[in-house]
Every structure is written in C-alpha cells, then in structure tokens.
Design brief:
4 copies of one chain form a homotetramer. Chain A folds into 2 domains: 124 residues, Urate Oxidase; 133 residues, Urate Oxidase, CATH 3.10.270. Helix content of chain A is 23%, strand content 41%. Chain A contains 5 helices and 11 strands. In chain A, the strands form 2 sheets. In chain A, strands 2-3-4-5-6-7-8-11 form an 8-stranded antiparallel beta sheet, with helices on one face. Chain A has a two-stranded antiparallel sheet with strand order 9-10. The longest helix of chain A has 17 residues. Chain A is globular, with a radius of gyration of 23 Å.
C-alpha cells in the first residue's frame, strides 16, 4: 500500500551555552538554550536509511559552540539565531528552511557595596527572554518574546455580565485578584529592529499596561496590552499572548468565625483558564 | 492607530477527573485531564470588556463533571471529547469551533492472589493515551495518540554515512543504543473507528516495529513505524511522530583500565536530537 | 570570633548509568542513578582551602563507571552500592563514612509475538527501586525500598470518628477513594538478604495488603502494611513508610442536575495529607 | 509476631495561601506554602483504626486560613509558624510536638512611572525564603533560610591540589566558573531575632561573601560564608549550607578552529557535586 511522507524535520534541542565576555573592568554573561530544527531534502533518510544528506544533530550542537566562539562580545539572541540560520543554509544546499528557537536565562549583577560587581551575579529564574528565527533562502522572520513572567494585581480586576447556564455557579465580582504568567510574542517589521533595548521597551509596555489597566476580563487586559504594544512601538507589526488565569480563590473565612476582609486566597495551578489572542496593525 | 484582533480563543485547561464505574463484581476506573479551547464571536470581550457572549471557564469545568456523570460506564476518551464538543456547540451559538484535548492516565489492576482484584490498582506513570477532538458545526476531526512512551533497544541500531563538515566529530557506528520517548498521533478516516481496541492495536504495531526494525537512523525507524501503522490499520489515514533521540553515550572505560564491552553508557536528557515526521496514505 | 565546623560531607549526585549485559540469546539492562556522599577528615578543605585530602567528585563519578565495568552481569543495586562503598573506604584513609544512594529505573521486556524480545524494552516510569548503603570501617547498613509507586482503591476505605473542632468541616465517610504514592524503606538484619527476589516479595506483601485491607485511615493501612512486611519476611527487621494522601474529592454533581453515584471525583496534588510511620520487631 | 510502632507523624503538606493587606495607599502581598507535621499519642489510629485522637489534616489546612485571617497585617513567616504551632499545642493535648515549615514566594512591586505601584507586582521565581518552626510544650526552635538562590561568578574560583588516583582525569584549574544554588539555614539564639530585616541582612552577608571570596573550592567558600554569617550576626548561633556544584564545563572550541578565550561553557544539571557543612560559634 503506497505511503507518503508529507512533512518531516529534525534537529537538536536543549543545546545549552554559557558565554562570558571578559572585559578589563567587568565580565558580561549570557546563558541560553538553543533548539534547532531543519527542513529539507531528507526523504531518503526516512525511506532508504540513506544518510548522505543528513547533517548529524551532534554537528548542529557543535556549530552552536563554534559560532558563539567567533564573537567576543555578547550578542542579542535574535542576532545569534540569524547567524546560526545563515550558517546552516549556506553550507547545506539540501536544507530548505531553518528554525532556531533561543531561550535566554537572565541574571542580575550583584552589588556588594552598592557598586556593580565585576563578575558575580544572581540568576533570575522564571521569566525568560525568547526569540524564534525562521529562515529560508528567500526570507527571514523574527519573533521576540517573553516566557513565564508571572504578574499579579490585587484589585482593579473584575469579571461579570457573563453567560449563566445550568452549570454556571461562578459568582460575579468587581474586585478579584488577577494573576497570570505572561507568554508574549511579537514580530518586527524589520529584523534589525530586534534589539536588546527594544525588547526591554516592549516588556515595559506590557507590564505598565497590566498594572494600570482596569480589567473586566483576562481577554480585556490581553487586548489592552496588545494594543499598547502596537501603539507605542511602530516597529512591531504583530503581537500575541497566551495568558493562563492563575486563579486565586477567595477563602470563606467567615465559616471559621473570622472577619472576611477579601484578604485570604487559595492560589491554584489547576484547573486554569487559558486566554490567547493575536493582534496586528490594520 | 487602528489595531485588529486577528485570532483568539479561550478555555479551561488541566481539568482533572477520576471516574469510577461500580459494577457488582468489579470497579472500573478512568483518570483523565481535559483541556478545552473555544473559538467564536468573542471580539467584544476583548475590545469592550463586554462579557455577554462569554461562557465562563469555570462553567466549562463544571460541564466536564456534569457530562461525565451522565454515563454510568467508562467511555473512550474520543467519545467523551465528542460529547463535550457537541454540548458546547449546541448550547452556544456564538461558538464557531471547539478543541478538546484529553489525556488519559492508565492503571493496572492488582492481582493479589493471581486473580484480578475488584477495586485496587497501580497507576502507570509515563505513557499516556491522548485524544484531540476538533469540532465545528460542519465537521469533526479526531486524532488519537500516545505520549511519553519510552522505549529502548540495545542493538540493531546504527548511524553512519552522514555528512562530515568541520564541526563533525561524531563517530560512525553500526551498533548503538536507541532510546526514544514516543509521541504519536493518528487520524481515523471515520471517527467511529476510534475505539479502545483499535488504540491498543495501533500501539502494538508501533512497539512491534520498533522492536523488530533494523534501524539506520531515528528517521528510518520513524518511517517504518508510520508505514506499518498505515499498512496494518486501513482505518487510519494519517500518522505522525515526534521522537527525541535520548542519547546513551558510551563511556570509555578503557581509560579507567577496564575492558570495553560496549556495556557502560551515560544516558542524557539534554541536548537531544528531535526527529519529526508525518505520513499518510497516497 | 571563633567558629567551628560541626558537620560536613560532600560527594557527587545524579550520576547516571545504563549497563547492558550482552548474552547470546538476550540482553539484560539496568538504568540507575547514583548519589555518593563522604564524611571524613575534610576540615582543612573548608578552613584553609587545602585540597590535599580531597577526592574530586569527578573522580567519584568515574569510579561509578569503572566499577560497573568490572562485572559483566547486572548486579543488585545493594551489591553495587557496597562495592562502591568498599572502594572509597579502602583507597582513602581520610574517609570515615560513605553513603551511597541508588535509584533503579525499571523496564519491561517487549513481547512482539507473545515471546520475550532479546533486546527491546519499554521503560516503567513512576515507581523506582531504591537502596541506601551506609558504610564505615566498622559497620554496613543497607536499606532497600520503593519510591513513587502510586496505588488506588475505589472502596473499602473510610475515615470517621475523628476530632471535630471549630475548623473541622470534613464529612465523615465510610466509603472513600484511597490513593497514595508509596515510599517504603526496609532494613535487613543481614545485608546478604538484600536480593532481587526478596525485594519483589516485600513489594508484593505491601501491594497485597493495600488491596485487601479494610482501611479506617491512611495510618491504619500504613500499620497493616508494615506489620505484614515484618510478619512475612523474617529477614526484615524494620520498615517505614511515607504516604501522601492523594485526595480524590467527590464532585457534587447533584448541583448540576445529575444523579450522585459516588462516581465522579476531582483528584488533587495539593494540599495533601502526609502520613509517616516506622515499625520494627519488638 | 509482636511488632512495634517506633515513630510516627502526620499532617498536611502544600497548603497554599495568598494574603493581601489592603492599606489605603498600597496593598501588601504574601504568598506562602505551609507544611504541618504532628507527633503525639497516635498509636491507636495505627493499630486499632481508632480516630478519637486524630485531628483531620483537612482541619489543619482550615486552621492555616483561619489564623491567617486573624491578623490584618502581613507577618514574618517565623511569627505565623509560631502562632500555628501554639494553636495546635494549646488545643490538642494528645500532641507532643509540632513542625511547621513555611516557604515564602517573593514579589517585586512594579514601578510603571518610576513610582511604586499600589497593587501590581511581578513574582520572583527561584529563590524562596523559608522557615522551620519546631515546638514542644517545653521549647521552640526556629530556623530561617533561603532555598534555590542561584549565584554565579565568572572568575576568582579555582580547584587544584586534590588527590589524583587512577580514575582522576579532572584538570587542575585556577580560573573556573563557580555556580551554585544556595540552600542556607540558620538558627537564632533567641526566636525574637527572626525578623524580616535580619533575614535580609543574613542573605546580604551570604551574597557579599560569595562575590568577594577568592575561592579554592566550594567547601572553602561555604566555610567563608558561614564564618561571615556568624561573625556579622551575633544573634545567629548556627548556620548550614547545602551547595550543589552546578558545573559549567569549558567547551574546547579550538577543536572547531576557534580561539579559546575561556569564554564558552556548557552548563549542566547532572551529575553535580554536592557540598554540605554546618558551622556554629565555639
């Protein structure tokens, strides 16, 4: 019975790299995890076990280290991803397209005497800076983003006026806790716009909007954050969010004989709402 | 500056359910986790904070429990997903499409005296049975699958004849360990074909092929498994795999004065190769 | 101000090893993770930065691979742990005591045609076999055990007659779901008793007791399992358990208009009860 | 065969609580996870299934919420733990001793316009503040601490002069990366000394010492940090650390034709060294 391979890709995932730039007065540090996936003329690998056109994933891993070593300075992950993509496309005509996903784990420089220390850092867990680079010989698409940035506001958030069917028991509220873990992605019109400074500025727009928005739902705030990013940053042409609603359930302490001050909550991980949306300039 | 909401969806994730069917002589047990995502006429929720058309995610959670309670028997997750999808579409005209993802955590009945025990079980961690149901008012698509099934073979696996560039140091081998964590998905031509029995049969085809295949690469085995599924199961029209190469690196014990018997390996989780492919009937 | 180092130890953790025994007709497989911790005359390492008596943890890791390579056959983890402990004590007079903790990840041989396959396996996630070996030059203590074995029974479990204070709202029940993740440890009177066969037999006693016991509390079943282990296995002199109560909360489906058949539950990971106890022969 | 219950305890784990203190001009926020374990006259629960002296773990959970609701202000976790311990001991004569472990997840107040926002925060993942309170009717012991604080220094760390045996291949170095995840615990002579301010001051001493110390081994820095804590904080009488050596392995980029600038490293999670020590005032 004839069978067809309709899609395939392969690559190396979870390639970890720590890079140190040793300047005279201070060291800079970058910790990233790289995922590489290639598409190309790979059918014979599958159907015949013919590896003639197969670049080993171990080689991809080595390429990450080699190309990182070629520059002395730390570079933006969007730049590094493009260099990797260019390398694979330039040296392997059997490859049609390259996907590079980079996650950057961030650090804070220590300040023992109130002064920035030359070479000691604490690691910021949770929030990660991310970038996805998709390249063919014809075009390059760059998406920058944030993963796992947990934010919370203790008021100016409500949820009411929703559908009530026979399975609805959720009380309406005009004052609830709003907690989410921000996953954001944005595309630049021009890939040169993907700088460290712009990343920080988009991040600030998202956080400021979350803080200041009078939220009528997670969707409402999602849209407000997306609208703000597009309004404030003309270089961004599209932005999307995936926002779990990390429910903080009010505990009815009156049941225990205590005064209810809207103060005691049970934060939960599951189940959770999940709200996703993508906005672009008209 | 005008801005457009180009895509959005929302729902409830990680809804956990344990269901017991209490027959006279034995209990049956099902443990599932359900993710629900809806698309529909939801723009006003985002842009105006108008929740008139918003079915709360808490209601979706309750719906899972209510619909599960409507049947006494345990039902296949593909059936339960369809019932959920139908419920949301039938009762909410503002909804265009429903995605239901179900993960089933499996159990093994205990056998204290060599006999099946009526109500005691051990839980099988790792491997999960999964199903994805996508429904609009026009059509239903059902994908069944397996997640996290770790398999290993200690011989009849090689990797050679690949590209050698300046970053390639991987030795060729005709006898390596092959370990992967199977993620498989398959689509049935007819959704009634998605039965418990068929799921087990497709799973067996995948495992048998892995065991018996003389592997020249992960890709080579991926294709062989896909081809076997399509050949043996005419009701399946498409099958895809995502296979991490869980590298088991030979330890050079000769360095420590010991004989190298191809016996001592370092299993690693990162970095890992990742091989993906999708096959369908021509 | 004078300061004293009152206790210290160091070693290597998460040393992973996969060992293959290649017999003519079949391969055997063992996958373990080893943690090593040493106590000894190490004060100068701390106080002076003098590493003269410091065996590098990298050397400990290599020792695991070297000693594993010395035997062709797979050996019980209790045996391998003792060989490791003996090696460190024999070759390092500055060491007073050695702790070796071994976790074994188990596999099931595949049976493609109903026959055991010579070299293909599925991995059993979840439950692990464990052993802790503590050795000084004077004595050796061996503890065998089980980690993460999740068991569940759907009836013959109740909880009632407990204290009711002003914060107690838990209903009494004589028919609840009982689910726990068994962590068990047992000590053998004689370390030679720590065989594969005995491990399986103790495990069976624990499971059989869980299945058959009419449980009035987690504590009640813990004690019954411990008593059974000591009664059935004279070579075991002490046994302990740590048992989380993985609550499965009944969902009140009557609220949704459905019949309550004690069938629909919400399984939760947090919060959970935790019950611990240790029994020995009088 | 007579059997004895030599030790037992039970309680509730992973009780999560989010508390908001709503002041006029700003909200304060506390997110904690509480584990409770009790020892007492509980043998009959085990041996007879008699729950007369059993305080349900569900009641313990409710007690956490009730006692948290009794104070309007956020209180130090050491204080809250003591209140919980006192409650259980005062109301349950069958209890001999109470262990309360509290983990605090920390937040940073947002500053949208450079000003502290009244009610919006980002969550700091990774590092946690912890406290362990052990109470009997006779005495109270309080241990404060830090978990999962990852620190790194890119120079002023070496490791040399160690034992070389036949399994030693680690090169000596006087310039390596030193990365660890700090787990620290300290005991106060007087439990009233356990304040927020003191916790931050001890934390600062640990970080400053890590940054400034010229490290000859992980042990050497562990001791320096402990000595500094005891020297700077007379209220602390004992301090201990558990420090994984998160190895950052130099990548030999010369192999790839690139200049080796001590710049490219592979950070790994396993295997890892683990160094532990406890210091007290003489």
């Amino acid at each position: 019975m004839p069978v067809e391979l309709v899609q395939n890709n392969y690559g190396k995932s979870r390639v970890r790299l720590l890079k140190v730039a040793r300047h005279g007065d201070r060291h800079d540090l970058q910790n990233i995890t790289v995922n590489i996936a290639l598409e190309g003329d790979f059918d014979d690998i599958h159907t015949k076990g013919d590896n003639t056109k197969c670049l080993p994933t171990d080689t991809m891993k080595n390429t990450v280290y080699a190309l990182a070593a070629q520059t002395e300075e730390i570079e933006a992950i969007e730049r590094f991803g493009q260099r990797l993509g260019n390398h694979f496309l330039s040296n392997n005509e059997q490859i049609f397209s390259v996907s590079i996903d980079v996650v950057e784990h961030q650090y804070t420089r220590m300040t023992p005497d109130g002064q920035p220390h030359p070479h000691s850092f604490t690691k910021n867990e949770g929030e990660k800076r991310v970038a996805s680079i998709r390249m063919t010989r014809e075009e390059t698409s760059i998406e920058s983003g944030i993963d796992d940035l947990i934010v919370i506001k203790t008021t100016e958030s409500g949820f009411s006026g929703f559908i009530k069917d026979k399975y609805t028991f959720l009380p309406e509220t005009d004052d609830r806790i709003f907690c989410t873990s921000v996953k954001a992605r944005w595309k630049y019109a021009d890939s040169d716009a993907a700088t460290d400074k712009r990343w920080s500025a988009v991040r600030k727009t998202i956080l400021d909007t979350f803080a200041e928005h009078d939220s009528l739902s997670v969707q409402h705030t999602l849209y407000a954050m997306g609208e703000a990013v597009l309004n404030v940053h003309p270089g961004v042409e599209e932005v999307s969010f995936s926002l779990p609603n990390i429910h903080c359930i009010p505990v009815d302490v009156a049941k225990f004989g205590e005064e209810n001050r809207n103060a005691i909550f049970l934060p939960t991980d599951e189940p959770h709402g999940l709200i996703e949306g993508r906005l672009k300039r008209k």
